[in-house]
Amino acid sequence: MLSRRAFLTSLGITALAVPLLQACGGGAAANTANASTGSASAPLAGSTSATSAPATTTSSVVTTASSSAVTTSAASTTSSAATSATTSAGVATSTSAATSASTAAAAAPSGAAKPLSIWFDYGGGGMFAYEDVTAAFNKKYPGIKATATQVSDFKNKRLTAIASNTLQGAWVWLTYGWELPEFAQKNLLRPLDSYIAADKVNMQDFWPIVLTDSTYNGKNYGMTNHPAVVILWQNTDLAKGAGLDTTKPPASWDDLLTATQKLTQRSGTAFTQIGNDPTSTPYTTWSAFWMAANGLSVISDDGKKAAFNGAPAQDALNYVIKTMDQVYGGPTALADWRKAEKFKFAALAEGKAGLETNGNWIAWDIGQQKSPIPFTIAGIPGGSNNAGKQYIPQLGTLNSIPMAATDPDSSWTYANYFASKEGQIIMQQRAEAVPGNIAAAEDPASIKAHYGRAQVLDLFKAANALVYVRTPAYDAVNKALGTLSSDTLNKKTDVATALATAQQQVQAALDAYWSGK
Asked: Is residue 376 over pLDDT 70?
């Protein structure tokens, strides 16, 4: 069985492997571009690294390297949610969650506490968020004993647990937005609409795009863990030095290319500074990213048809290739520069890039510098087919309840608490993640505590798309788009031929999925 890193690499999204396993374990994972696909490593769960945790912290989640079957682990975790990790299953239990759960259970009537198992694959800030929220939950709900567990080989272990019928009791899983259509279509997740209605949860408490992320075929399958937006960052000092407008980033693709040319500097043949790298697009292939910025949907609204071949798609790919060839002399030199620089944080944050298409987490990277750069941010400018408009894509993670869990009521209590203002404020205390709950995101103390938070919130309000291609056939579709990105960037074939091939591959993947093959 492929490791998660090998599996993601096979899909053409090399950059996803590190952040999904470390999930914001600090800036070291940020902005490592892949020359073939252009995806950039980017933390989704905040950027607070393990080394930056307060010295008084006594809890952690210990990761193991084992990838053996999950059956033993699931049964073990269910029967004793507060115990230490079942190492034979390759998972480790949060000691803080276990300790807090034991304390809370002691305050409840003997034998009354119900075990609740929470699975996630975050490291770093995302791991701390689960620890902190779970500890607070256990104090607030002593009748439930919640245990947060970091799990490797995450997707396979969840699917194995369902197949082996080991999900007795209450369970909550982290679900990535791009996974939700597949899991929902296969009836693996429990719709939450009846719980939302019964508890009178006001869904207007969340960013609108968060609700898009958690809804499939008219049903809600998750409560927000946290979202993120991908935006265009500009180093205003470097922009001023290049004679560019320092009040806002470029507003069109022509402006973006011009700015990239002016901001790119060399010493001999080596870059000393770059403009924007259009192949560096977090959590999606660059071909899908720029086609969407040009107003295209890769797949039709009903999810059955590939819908991206044609002039607007060619314009998007040609823009990226033109930028890479005209400014950087192709992908190899830029990839070599990134390897040589060995950035600890994003290139923009370290003053080596004037522009960057990256997530809201870059604010944290900037704030970690001894002399934080001044910056301006905006949505991604649209191309000729989307002129005058901004592409502001969002991605997110959710807390979902597996359909097979036999105590969904306790599971809902946790998922709802995590998404509440109280839970979301706790969630971001040791993570750079922006809450999906608007009141928590706009909490004055939280804004003050997070560098650049006030600026990025305006982009959350304006988010207008999802950064990933939304389909239950996500893996196969993304693999085809990764090949499209690689083949065109490396001149293995011309753009028109590559697009026609990708269109056929995506359509074949959709047909195979919907026909049940």
From this structure: yes
